[in-house]
Amino acid sequence: MVFEDARYFAFLDIHPFSRGHTLVCPREHGETIWDMEETEIGGLFLAASRVSRAVVEATEADGFRFLQNNGEAANQAVAHVHVHVIPVAMEQKDRFLTRMRLDESEMEATAAAIREALGKQLRERQSGQVSAGQP
Q1: Is 93 exposed, middle or buried (0-12, 13-18, 19+ CB in 10 A)?
Q2: First to last CA, the chain
Q3: How far apart, in whole angstroms, are the C-alpha atoms of residue 104 and residue 120?
Q4: Fewer CB within 10 Å: N-end or C-end of the chain?
Q5: Catalytic residue list contains 82
Q6: What's the predicted TM-score (pTM) here?
Q7: Domains in the chain, please, with CATH?
Q8: CA quadruple 128, 54, 88, 39: dihedral sign
Q9: Per residue in 2-44, pLDDT tens?
Q10: Alpha carbons 101 and 117: distance in angstroms, whole number
Q11: Which helix (H) or strand (E) holds 57?
Q12: H or E element that contains 109
């Protein structure tokens, strides 16, 4: 677990496409994004945006992808809405990503780095150091 509040939670993918691949989920159940109210969809992507900043910082990635699948045909493997935050290094730019297996110690070190970056973000928002356009 790298993040949780009253409405959303985020945790590392057990079979990530890259180190730091994180899933952001609403607490309220919905199988697809169509099962959510528009404000909930916005809140989910705001939470994913905040998590993505921490994931990129913690993994020193050059960019990130959001992936959100709906339905079996779209490769949705878990019947609960979630957004994948996938950090990407420049050398991965044109590559098809494949799932990987990381050992438990690497997963925990990555999760700790993301939690630390999220805590830093929260402190910056509370002190007004983050501009209005940044999550």
Answers
A1: exposed
A2: 20
A3: 24
A4: N
A5: yes
A6: 0.84
A7: 3-127 (3.30.428.10)
A8: negative
A9: 999 999 999 999 999 999 999 999 999 999 999 999 999 999 9
A10: 23
A11: helix 38-59
A12: helix 104-127
Helix, strand, coil shares of the chain as percentages rounded to 5?
40, 15, 40
The pLDDT value given to residue 131: 52
Q: Pull the structure tokens for residue 130.
A: 């983050």
DSSP state of 26: E
* Structure-token pair, residue 11: 């945790």
Burial of 33 (0-12, 13-18, 19+ CB in 10 A): middle
Q: Provide φ and ψ at 28, rounded to 5°.
A: -70, 130
Tell which phi-psi region holds residue 87, choosing left (phi > 0), alpha (psi between -120 and 50) or beta.
beta
Specify the pLDDT at position 75.
92
CB 107 within 8 A of CB 46: no
pLDDT in tens, 57-91: 999 999 999 999 999 999 999 999 999 999 999 98
Do residues 105 and 42 touch, judged by C-beta distance below 8 A? no
